[in-house]
Amino acid sequence: MTSALLVIDMQYDFCPGGALAVPEGDSIVPGINAAMRDFPAVILTQDWHPAVHSSFASQHPGKAPFDMVEMSYGPQVLWPDHCIQGSHGAAFHADLDTTRADLIIRKGMNPEIDSYSAFFENDHATPTGLHGYLQTRGLTDLTLVGLATDFCVKFSALDAARLGYPVTLLQDLVRGIDLDGSLDAATGEMREAGVRFA
Ligand code: VGL
Ligand code: ZN
Questions:
Q1: For residue 13, how far is its CA from the centre of ligand 1 (angstroms)?
Q2: Which residue in 5, 34, 122, 191 is deepest, having the highest Cβ count within 10 Å?
Q3: pTM of the prediction?
Q4: Contact residues for 130 (Cβ-Cβ < 8 A; gap 6+)
Q5: For residue 1, what pLDDT band results from cuts at 50, 70 and 90?
Q6: Is the beta carbon of 77 within 6 A of some atom in ligand 1?
Q7: In this structure, which residues have their CB less than 5 angstroms from ion ligand 2?
């Protein structure tokens, strides 16, 4: 088996001081850099939204960040504007060692559909291309780290498991947002899907 390290959304907007800050989000950067040495392939994801993205509360008059709305593809949390293409908040944390990255997958570019997972947009149908990349490179086994445990990490882990990859989550190298118990729920869903916690 050839393993890839999948580093989810280690961007300024998900770090303390950012638009959608995850508590201690930046604290995992040194550990992620160290973990990169243990993997023959490193893949980074980057949340990369147009300014008018439909997951932003600012696009829904009368709604506030963290309200829920119904989209064509199901329920959607409305977020503060974050990771706008080309902005500082969308940039990788400067301490993240991006020189080791084989591939950077950007997601969330379609203004109509949010995209938490590294594999599919939130319609669970539109692919990002990552599965094809992994298959053609013979990368058969995935280890996940990054932000946020209960959103992009969880959706990526569940899709990876569904696609048949053995998935390991490095528990010390993820951090969560935790909306209404979403962190505990995410842990349960990932365990149920067969994700290994290490
Ligand atoms: C994320 C909410 C919105 C994440 C991205 O990286 O977990 N969460 N966009
Ligand atoms: Zn986003």
A1: 10
A2: 5
A3: 0.97
A4: 43, 103, 105, 118, 119
A5: confident
A6: no
A7: 47, 108
